[in-house]
Amino acid sequence: MIVDLARFVERERPYWRRLEKSVARLEEAPAWPLEMNDALTLHYLYERAAAALNRIHTFSSDPEVTGYLESLVARAYAVIHSADRRRRRFRPVRWFFGTFPRTFRTHARAFALATAVTLAGSALGAFALAVDDEAKGVIMPFEGLKGDPSNRVEQEEAGGEDDQQLKTAFSSMLMTHNTRVSIIAMALGLTFGVGTILLLFYNGVILGAVVFDYLRAGEGVFLTGWLLPHGAVEIPAILIAGQAGLVLASAIIGRGAGDPLKVRMRQVLPGLVTLIFGVAVLLVWAGLIEAFLSQYHHPVLPYWLKISFGCVELVLLGLFLGLSGRRGAAEAAEEAA
Amino acid sequence: MTPGRARQLVIRTPEGVAFALALAGPIARFLAWLIDTLVTVALILVTVYLLLLLVVVSPSVALALVFLAVFVISFGYGIALEWWWRGRTIGKRVLGLRVVDEQGLRLTFPQVVLRNLLRVADMLPALYLVGGAACAVSRRSQRLGDLAAGTVVIRPPKTPAPEAVRAVAGPFNSFRRHPHLEARLRQRATRDAAEVALRALLRRDQLEPAARVALFGEIADHFRQLVSFPPEATGGLSDEQYVRNVVDSLFRARAGAAK
After folding, report:
1. Helix/strand/coil for A168
2. Chain A residues 202-231 within an 8 A CB cutoff of chain B
3. Is the domain of A124 the same as that of A66?
4. Interchain contact A11–B (C-beta under 8 A)
5. Which residue in B59, B147, B253 is closest to A165 by CB distance?
6. Which is more confident, B206 or A49?
7. Which of A58, A145, A240, B48 could pair with A140 as two cysteines, CB 3.0-4.6 Å apart?
8. d(CA B197, CA A278)
9. Chain B, nearest residue to A57 by Cα
10. Do both A212 and A246 map to the same domain?
């Protein structure tokens, strides 16, 4: 059976044109701007075009008309069925103080695992240095860490040749580098988490080796004053990036979950993006502190001041991640639903 | 997926309609990526050049802005353009590609961000080997970032106005004077043969002259064997005009049957 295509197209074309115009307008609109009557008309036009497509599929297979109608119906389908996906106004303060810590807490087990892996790496790094001095040359990533800690402390306290002019650039370099590493830590979750775990473990090995090296040399105060102001935020930020990687891995593996991969991914997707953007914000802060505070040592800045500052940061970060956004939890759940 | 045809994503709507989106292949995607890479590099070079002019004001600030600009452009280019242009970057626009949700719905911001950030894994170990391999073996030509974000890259069909069908029917059809033979033709012609004739007419201007003559010769011969119209209806008709008459006869009068 063959439809009279010319007549059919001629009769339906005005409806298709109206649908095309409505869809084009809605595709560009940032919010759903339709009144009830307009919405009903749109739905009628969509159903009419869908019916026309079905009819063309059944009674004809003219490629031009089929292609046109499939494209039109696909666009209308996306517009109508994505009404609940439309862009909502982004509120950065509410997101940072509400959504981010809530997401962190939702995936607290992944954070605990990321921390455990890093601690295990740290233990290995310290152990390696304890049993073999030559390990230092292999483990330490920078020349500055391969030397004697006491010599470095002496140089730093003497003021060294630190270029004060480049602090801003150093800060920017740290932020971008650490954010890049965090993105990689999350992305390696695609390797079923193996890459993320290796990265966290390797970071832990370096951290453990550095800490052990300075403690062994009796430079614990310098180390704490140097690392704590920025490390109090930077290290948890990297751990949160690892947490995101492990959440991704967990969704891919799907152990014990009844949902298919697609559904699991859709469930964790907004959380992953929230975590990685939260990490980026934390790393901006850590970069500023590392460049403008951590590199100044006694006598310019007394160690007690730097250590106290780092401790306050750590406590505030703990309170922020542990408590912030609790009040809005019910509201957020409603929004999500 | 239909054998012999380009890969397609078939979406069935709750209204019971199915439509197909043509998936972009690895080569088209690679070319789009190449263009985007060139654009990104050009953007970075221009931005760095401009920012370095600030060295006279403050070398540290200039260098800091360079670090930030390189980072923001390299990660933000794809995210910003795919979000604002609804799944398209400059490279994808040039190649006629678009990122869409694999259920045919509107892209969400987390989807756009995730597929772009996970690019760092797809690029491993070098030259997009992981992403390219995933794209080649995936049923929907998805790289890892697409699989995680639930997105696919499609080639949206060009949508010409559907008037084209009317143009194939000529102003006058000599077969109309023989309705009983037209009826016999409609009875004997298969749907496939009718579609072949229609498609040949729709694409006749894209054919080489020799191929056009040969193709319409074959199609006309096929229909001549089905029904023999008298000489007064076929006299002076070229093979192509003969096929036009056949198409008009087949597609014109079936409205009653289809309605």
Report:
1. helix
2. none
3. no
4. no
5. B59
6. A49
7. A145
8. 61
9. B18
10. yes
- One domain for residues A67 and A151: no
Q: Which of B35, B15, B32 is nearest to B24 (CA)?
A: B32
* Inter-chain residue contact A3 with B258, CB threshold 8 Å: yes
Which phi and psi (to 5°) does residue A317 adopt?
-65, -40
Pair type for strands B98-101 and B151-155: antiparallel
Contact A294, A230 (CB under 8 A): yes
Provide ipTM, 2 decimals. Answer: 0.84
Q: Kindly report the pTM of this predicted structure.
A: 0.77
Domain end among A46, A68, A85 = A85
Residue of A nearest to B113 (CA): A273
Tracing tokens 């060294």 back to the chain, one arrives at: A160
A47 and A99 belong to one structural domain:
no
DSSP string, chain B: --TTS--EEEEE-TTS-EEEEEEPPHHHHHHHHHHHHHHHHHHHHHHHHHHHGGGGT-HHHHHHHHHHHHHHHHHHHHHHHHHHTTS--HHHHHHT-EEEETTS-PPPHHHHHHHHHTHHHHTTTTTTHHHHHHHHHSTT---HHHHHHTEEEEEPPP---TTHHHHHS-S--GGGG-HHHHHHHHHHS-HHHHHHHHHHHHTGGGS-HHHHHHHHHHHHHHHHHH----HHHHTT--HHHHHHHHHHHHHHTTHHHH-
A143-147, A260-264, A267-271: the lowest-pLDDT one: A143-147
Q: Residue ranges of the domains in chain B?
A: 8-155, 164-254
Return all residues near A170 (Cβ < 8 A) that are at least 6 apart. Answer: A290, A291, A295
Boundaries of domain holding A212: 92-336
CA distance A319 to chain B (A): 27
Q: How far apart are CA A51 and CA A47, in angstroms?
A: 6
What's the average model confidence in pLDDT over B143-156? Answer: 92
Residues A48 and A120 both lie in one domain: no
C-alpha pair distances (Å), B5 with each of B1, B2, B98, B138, B155: 8, 6, 19, 16, 14
Q: Are residues A99 and A57 in the same domain?
A: no
Whether residue A70 is found in the same domain as residue A209: no
Q: What is the pLDDT of residues B174-186, one digit of tens each?
A: 888 888 998 899 8
For residues B107 and B157, the answer to whether their CB atoms sit within 8 Å is no
Confidence grade of residue A300 (pLDDT, cut at 50, 70, 90): confident
Cα–Cα distances in angstroms (integers) from residue A178 to residues A181, A276, A285, B63, B125, in the given order: 5, 12, 12, 17, 20
Do A169 and B100 lie within an 8 Å CB cutoff? no
